[in-house]
Design goal:
single chain, alpha/beta, Rossmann fold, five-stranded parallel sheet, two-stranded antiparallel ribbon, 10 helices
Amino acid sequence: MTLGSSISFLGVDGSGKSTIARALHEELAAAGRKVCVLSRRDYLREQAQGHVADANRALYDAGLRALYSFARTDEGQALGELLPGPPGDLRDSALERKLNAACISANDPQAITAAALSEIAGSLVYYTSVVRPELDRGTVVIEETHPLKMVTKLCLIAAQIASDERHGRAAVTARRSATMVLAPDPFRDVPVLVRCDPQRAYDRLIAARGGLGALEHHGLAGRGTGREAYLDLMVQVQEAFEDVAQSWRCVVIDSDDEDQDRSVKRAVETILADPRTAYLA
């Protein structure tokens, strides 16, 4: 049996990862390839049942609780008070909107680092239980966002607000560990780095959604939620991704072109021209 390949994307929020992933899926499906787009977030929202689903859900919930339980709003409320106790559903859209809209004034760097570690653990379990079985069936799995993106953002935010040097080092160490623990399998995984000027990515997000998401700025640390906070965080995120691009052997794509259709078409061609994916074209 032909083993499948996993193609996952790194890039700042708004860089065009999801658009390129969908276009790649359409191209491969049209060519008759067995291909699917998988997302840990979507998997959890589907309310899968069984002990494997329970393990995935528990690790996701642990990360979310660590991230919000020690955050305090401008009014002094602990956001953890909004979270339902187990077995309450933390993926409820109304709860998500409340958390995203909360004006956070302070958070704990160790709790944010703990959320990053939960994200690493959850991603490993998700890969083992959901992605790898599809690869073993010969499926080409496309992941719109590599889990390193979330871990990187969390660790950068934690390091920024750490007043104790030890806590800052813990966040830096967690991020470095993630680049090893979550590193792609050189025989089955093809990581793609989507380069994009953060200002252009910001403009795309605002044009598409009218606003930023909860983890697209320094809001979780109580350090700003607007354009400047977005740009500051995303510049750091992009630098972190550049650091791993060579060791991970990423396919590198430039998505700064104002003509998005042309940019996406070129991106798909670049991915399928890589020696690791050329057999799919």
